Amino acid sequence: MVTVDFHSVTQPVGILRTISVVLTCVTFILVATVGHVSSPYWAWCMFTWCFCFFVTCLILILDFTTLSSRLPLAWDDFTKAFAMLAGLMCLSSSIIYPIFFTCGTCPRQIGASVVSWLCFVVYAVEVVFTHLHPRGETIGFLSTNAGIMKMLEAFFACLIFMSLETSQYHSPGLQWCVAVYSLCFIFAILIIVLTIGQMTLVFPFSFDKIVVVHNVVAAVMYLTAMVVWPLFSFRSNPRPSDCGNLCSWDKLVVVTFMSVTNCIVYIVDSAFSIWMVFIAMNQ
Fold first, then answer.
1. Angstrom distance (rounded) from CA 46 to CA 192
2. What are the tens digits of pLDDT across the range 63-103?
3. pTM above 0.70?
4. What is the dihedral of CA 187, 50, 94, 37, to 10 degrees?
5. By its UniProt entry, which PANTHER family does this protein fall under (predicted)?
């Protein structure tokens, strides 16, 4: 039987989520009325606002109808992780959109940029509220350091995919890099899904040790991509003189920077998981 819980929308976190729904909807509408722009960065911004709007609406509805308590996942952990992810996505869109799609005489674009920054602030405040745990409260996987790093790995991989173009990875070396980005992203998402879905206990072996192996292998693979991508991308390939605002060559730089950033995250994640599984648990 479905019941309603008015407290879920009148408490501070519920109010913040309602504000997020309104702000993401306003941002999406403002940008949509300007017209479509053929750019993966524009598509990323639009996807961000639509995704945040839809999922936040879904969270509000499930909490209001108390259906969230019947879902086979750690609901509080999921909502906390989503608020953090939505904040990161809105932050990236709030930086990308005004840089590439806003001008001094574009009122709707300026308005969308301002509202997008407000979206980021609201999600950031929600993260602060939801992470103020009372002492003794159980903290889910995505609220731990390991879970946060997994979300960062997936998020940075999305930024890499957004900057890739088919014409860029024509050589075997660059194809290897794309394979690295794709495989590591898939396994990071798989680990997140299995964990928040509470399906790790069905494995006949230690899931934590499998995660350690994945982290180490992914770190090594990213190390190779961090070297191979710029080596094959920039060798005999200087920046064209007619390269305008974020041309294909600039996207190679973006992928290089994000590869280094994600490699660092995987290395930290590997070291932390090794310490947690093989040292801290045995003390």
1. 24
2. 988 888 888 777 888 888 899 999 999 999 999 999 888 88
3. yes
4. 100
5. MYELOID-ASSOCIATED DIFFERENTIATION MARKER MYADM FAMILY MEMBER, MYELOID-ASSOCIATED DIFFERENTIATION MARKER-LIKE
Distance in angstroms (rounded) separating the CA atoms of residues 199 and 197: 5
The mean predicted confidence, pLDDT, of the chain is 87
Sign of the Cα pseudo-torsion (23, 145, 140, 180, in order): positive
Tokens standing for 206? 């230690």
Lowest mean pLDDT among 34-38, 91-95, 131-135, 189-193: 131-135
For every residue of 112-142, DSSP letters joined together read HHHHHHHHHHHHHHHHHHHT-PPTTPPPPGG
Looking at this protein, which amino acid is placed at residue 232? Answer: F
Burial class (CB in 10 A: 0-12, 13-18, 19+), 183: middle
Q: Which pLDDT score is estimated for 150?
A: 92
Amino acid sitting at position 7: H
Chain segment 22-52, per-residue pLDDT in tens: 999 999 999 999 988 888 889 999 999 999 9
The Cα–Cα gap between 189 and 273 comes to 17
Would you state the structure tokens that stand for residue 150, as one six-digit string?
């997994």
Q: Virtual CA dihedral for 257, 258, 262, 267, nearest 10 degrees?
A: -10
Only one residue has tokens 């969270």, namely 59
Read off the tokens for 183.
């495989």
Give the residue carrying structure tokens 């608020």. 83
The answer to whether 247 and 240 have CB atoms below 8 angstroms apart is yes
At 224 the pLDDT is 96
Helix (H, G, I), strand (E, B) or coil at 144: coil
Q: Which helix (H) or strand (E) holds 62?
A: helix 40-64
* Mean of pLDDT values over 254-273: 94
